[in-house]
Amino acid sequence: MQEIYLNYLKFIRKEKRILSFGLSFSFLSSFGQTFFISLFVPYFLPNFSLSNGTFGTLYAIATLISAGSLPYLGKWIDHISLRKYSFFVIVGLLAASLMVTISSNIGMLFVGILLLRISGQGLSSHTARTTMARYFEFQRGRALSVSSLGYPIGEGILPLAVSGLLGILSWRTIWVVVMVLIILVFAPLIWFLLGEQSYELSGENSSKPKAGESSWPVYKMLFQDYRFWLSAPAVLLPPFWITGLFLYQVSVAKQLSWSAELIATAFVGFAVSRIISSLSVGPIIDHFSAESIFPFYLLPLAGGLVTAFYHPGQWSAFLYMILVGVTLGIGSNITSALWAELYGTKVLGTVRSLFSSLRVFGTAVCPLLMGWAIDRNMSMETIIFIAILSVAAATFLVFAAFWAPALDDSPEESFAEG
C-alpha cells in the first residue's frame, strides 16, 4: 500500500503540469453543472417572471441542444491542437458567463444557460477526460483519477462560496466574479500548463484524423460492436438517475422521512467518497484494466438505491449518498479508460463525444420524467424501485458484454488499422 502511495506521488510530481490541466478543466465544468446553476434559480424566477415548470422546460431544452451539439463539437479535439481547442472552450465558457450576466430577457438567459451547458458541463469535462485518456497509456487510470478531483472540489467549494457571496453581492455580480476568475486565473493558468509541449501522441496513434473527415465511419464501427449496445445502459443510467434524484432531493427527503438539512449534510459524505474512490480506482485500472472492472462499477449505486428504498433510519441518508458518490467517483475514470482500451486513442475524442452527448441527453430527460411522475403522485419509493430494476438490468447486460466470446473482426482491430 505504501509503495502504491509513493508511486502515486512520484507520478503526480512528474506529470504535474498536464494533470493540473485536466483538474482545471474538471473544475471549470462546475460552472455549467446543475448543482451550480440551481443556486441561482431562486433569483432567475422572479427576475424573468418564470415559474418552476417553465424554467425546468427551458433548462431541459438547453440541455438537449447541448447533447445534440457535443458529437460535432467534441470531435474537434481529434483534429486540432490541444492548446487551440482549450482556447475555444475557455472562450465559450466566458461568453456563457457574460450572457447570463447581461441577460435582460428570457431569450438571453436561455442562450447563456445553453452555452454554460455546452462549454461547461459538456466540453470542459470532455477536454479533461479525453486528454488524460489519450496522453497516458500505462498510467491512464491514475491520470484520470487525479484530474477528476476537480469535480468534487467544485461541488465542495462553490455552493458554500456562492451562498456566502449572495449575502453581500447581487447574483449578476457573482457571474462577473466568475468571468474574472476565468480571465485572470484559469485562462493564463491553462496556457502556462500547456506550455510549448503539444501533448500529442507518439507512435502509431500520433496521426490525427483529417479535419474534414466524417465521423460516420467511427459511429458505424461503434454501432456494429455488440459491446457498445450492451455497455450503453450501464454508462448512461448513473447520470440519468443521479441528476433526477439530486434535482428533486427535497421531495426525496420529505417522502423518505429525511430532513432537507440531513440530505445537505450527507453531501459531505458524497464528496468525500467521490474523492477517495476516484483516487483509489486509478491504480486498480492500471493493474487490472478498465475492461475487467467495468462490470462491477454499478454495484455501489445499486447498494445506495436499495438503502434509500428501505431507508431504515437517519443514518441511511449518509450511506445512500456515500455509495452514490463511489459510483460517480469511479465511473468517469473507468469509462474514459475503457474507450481508449477498446477503440484506441486516435478517435477517442469522437467516441467520447458521442457518449457525452447521450449522457447529457439523459440528464435532460430524467428531470422531466421524474417531475411528471411526482406531479401524478407517484411515490418516491416506486421511482427508486424502478431505478433499482434498471440498474440491475444494466449490470446484467454489461456482464454479458465482457464475458461473451470476442468476435473475430472486432471494431477495435478495425480502428487500429485506421
**In terms of structural class, how would the helical and strand content be classed?**
mainly alpha
- Number of separate strands: 0
Taking all residues together, what is the mean pLDDT?
A: 84
Largest sheet: none
Round the Cα radius of gyration to an integer and report it.
21 Å
Strand content: under 5%
Overall helicity:
over 70%
Q: Uncertain spans, ≥5 residues at pLDDT below 50?
A: 201-207, 406-418
Our count of helices gives 20
N-to-C order of helices and strands? HHHHHHHHHHHHHHHHHHHH
Distance between the termini: 40 Å
Characterize the overall form. Answer: globular
Explained architecture:
This protein is an all-alpha fold and 418 residues long. Helices cover 79% and strands 0% of the residues. The chain is built from 20 helices and no strands.
Q: How would you concisely characterize the structure shown here?
A:
This protein has helices spanning 2-14, 16-28, 34-37, 41-47, 52-75, 82-102, 106-135, 140-147, 150-165, 171-194, 216-223, 226-247, 249-255, 260-288, 290-293, 299-310, 315-343, 348-375, 380-403, 411-417. It is an all-alpha fold and 418 residues long.
